[in-house]
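Issue 218. Parser rejects a valid record. Input:
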Amino acid sequence: MLTKILFTGFIIFVVYAFYRFRGRTPRKLAPRAQQPARPSAIGRFAAYGFVAVLAIVSGVIFLYQWQQAHTVVTIRVIDGSTDNVTIYQAYQKSIKGNRFESLDGKFVVLGEAERVEFIENDE
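Output the parser choked on:
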């Protein structure tokens, strides 16, 4: 996670440095008498619109993933040898392989002889 953030920061820095030092002329040449080009209003509007669209899409994706992670799932654990059925409820995000934490705080580790059924609750 940290490497993703550092890589993104590095890319932003490189783009900033490129545009910052792009307009400088070498000292050997005489400076031109031209006015520096200013970005057009359409270009600025497009850039701000692009950033706004990226922020909105990122927010929607974050909310969707958060909603999926906090979905309550009913878990039926069936013991293979005795056919006893135990029912738990847990958040989707707490299920990791053969272990999960139920809503009432129990940590459950499933054995290989147990069958598991996941039933998504419709709320």
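Fixed in the parser; the record now loads. Residues 71-120 form one domain.
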